[in-house]
Amino acid sequence: MEEDEEICKTPLTNTVVAVCIIAGSSGLMYGYDTTVTGGVMMMKPFLEKFFPTVLAKMRREVKQDQYCLFDSHILAAFISSMFIAGLVSSLLAGRVTSVIGRRFSLIISGILFIMGNGFEVFAQNVAILIVGRLFVGFGIGFANQAAPVYITEMAPSKWRGALNTAFQFFVCVGAVIASLINLAANYSNNSNGWRLALGCASVPAMILTIGALFIPDTPSSLIQRGKNVEALAALTKLTEPRYRPQLVLTVAIAGFQQLTGVGMVAFYAPVVLRTIGIGPEGSLFAALVIGVVHLTSVLMSTCMVDNIGRRLLFLQGGVQIIFAHVCPSSLSTFLN
């Protein structure tokens, strides 16, 4: 009992903060990439080089449905390739991470991401562009598997809730930075502005890769203290029938959180806003506002999570998401 109390009183050291920031930078990588890609798709030099048919539709004076502007199978392949690769790699990353450790998985994710980003930046045709998106997706799949687990295992129990939000915090920071760079690239009128915007994604990937070389891997707490029997008992307990509902619900929460479309909001925000009549610059600025609101909410939850608990935040967030889905749909139906 005294030993457990001492563990709970483990201080938040500079080393713990540093390693959590390095691991959390993978969220910066993910947030930046998903947001910057959505903005790049609105840039005329990018569309002119890779998707001229889409740009031609945008320049037509004939009035047409805005949704038809982006009706392109090649554009859809460019968008979906990263997510498909991320799905496949996330299935593999769980096993790989358990074998080689969280630290090496973070290094692998950074290397894959940098390779993919290089293909994107120097691409001269759509095929190379999609290859780059595939590598980026593989890197993100590994990062999203390893980073949250790494942070959880490294964080002292007292600070675990706050530090666990580090990954999401960096996702939001990356989204805000990407929105600002998209605006700057769009206003610069530089034909290669989209390459610069995409290339900046390698910065957080390099921070992650280089930083991961110097951080320790996470030891299992029970095994480190020689409590192998207790470790086995804890794993066994999760598979007992009476605990299966809780286990299923925990997994379902993460699944339904993704099904709300939160990831697509960041990726497609400029395109969706453009289709409802907002101009190119206005849609990029509105995407920036969305990113700032997201970042603010994460900061608020970071401050509250260890005081009011995760369950209340989850319920409150669920209610907000329901209103966010129902109200705009009902309003648009009423106005039409």
From TrEMBL:
The domain of life is Eukaryota
Q: Is the Chloroplast keyword given for this protein? A: no
Q: What is its membrane topology?
A: Multi-pass membrane protein
What residue ranges are annotated as transmembrane?
12-32, 74-92, 104-122, 128-151, 163-184, 196-215, 247-271, 283-305, 312-335
Q: Which PROSITE patterns match?
A: MFS (PS50850), SUGAR_TRANSPORT_2 (PS00217)
Which UniProt key words apply to this protein?
Answer: Membrane, Sugar transport, Symport, Transmembrane, Transmembrane helix, Transport
Do you know which InterPro entries this protein is assigned to? MFS_dom (IPR020846), MFS_STP/MST-like_plant (IPR044778), MFS_sugar_transport-like (IPR005828), MFS_trans_sf (IPR036259), STP/PLT_plant (IPR045262), Sugar/inositol_transpt (IPR003663), Sugar_transporter_CS (IPR005829)
Subcellular location(s) per record:
Membrane
Q: Name one GO molecular function term.
A: symporter activity
Listed under GO cellular component are:
membrane
Presence of keyword Translocase: no
> Where does the UniProt entry say this protein principally localizes?
membrane
CDD domains named in the record: MFS_STP
Query: Where does the record locate the signal sequence feature?
Result: none
Q: Describe the location of the Major facilitator superfamily (MFS) profile domain by residue ranges.
A: 19-336
What Pfam families does the record point to? Sugar_tr (PF00083)
The similarity comment for this entry is: Belongs to the major facilitator superfamily. Phosphate:H(+) symporter (TC 2.A.1.9) family.
Q: What is the designated name of this protein?
A: Major facilitator superfamily (MFS) profile domain-containing protein
Species the sequence originates in: Mikania micrantha
